[in-house]
Write a structure and sequence with these properties.
CATH superfamily: VSR Endonuclease
Family: Belongs to the Vsr family.
Helix content: 40-55%
GO molecular function, one term: hydrolase activity
Distance between the termini: 43 Å
Number of strands: 4
Number of helices: 4
Shape: globular
Keywords: DNA damage, DNA repair, Endonuclease, Hydrolase, Nuclease
Protein name: T/G mismatch-specific endonuclease
Organism: Umezawaea tangerina
CATH class: Alpha Beta
Structural class: alpha+beta
Amino acid sequence: MERLATTEAVRARMSKQRSRDTEIEVALRRELHRLGLRYRVHRRPVRAVRREADVVFGPSKVAVFVDGCFWHGCPEHGTWPKRNSEFWRAKIETNRARDANTDLVLADAGWLSVRVWEHEAAEAAAVRVREAVVSRR
């Protein structure tokens, strides 16, 4: 894929986007802890796969991924930039394909992937994650 030139302002803004410990991620972890759950943070559920989950429940084999609406193409809030649109569409579609592949690889290894969108309320997402963890104990 050919990388299209972008402005310095866009490059600077995008480079400041956090990939770990985002606001929703921290809020979700706080709620999970409040619900009595204990977990690992930023771990590979399956060592052979070079993809980290944001929250991992090892004994239950549940991997939680907090996906950004822009970067992962949220059907509700995802946007398609007008500048360098082909580049960004390819980037976001590649992220979506990788997410689907990750879910498939983890499922084949006996894991359950839970996807949380950044726009979701942390409390509601935590309840959903808790239900998944408890159901697999």
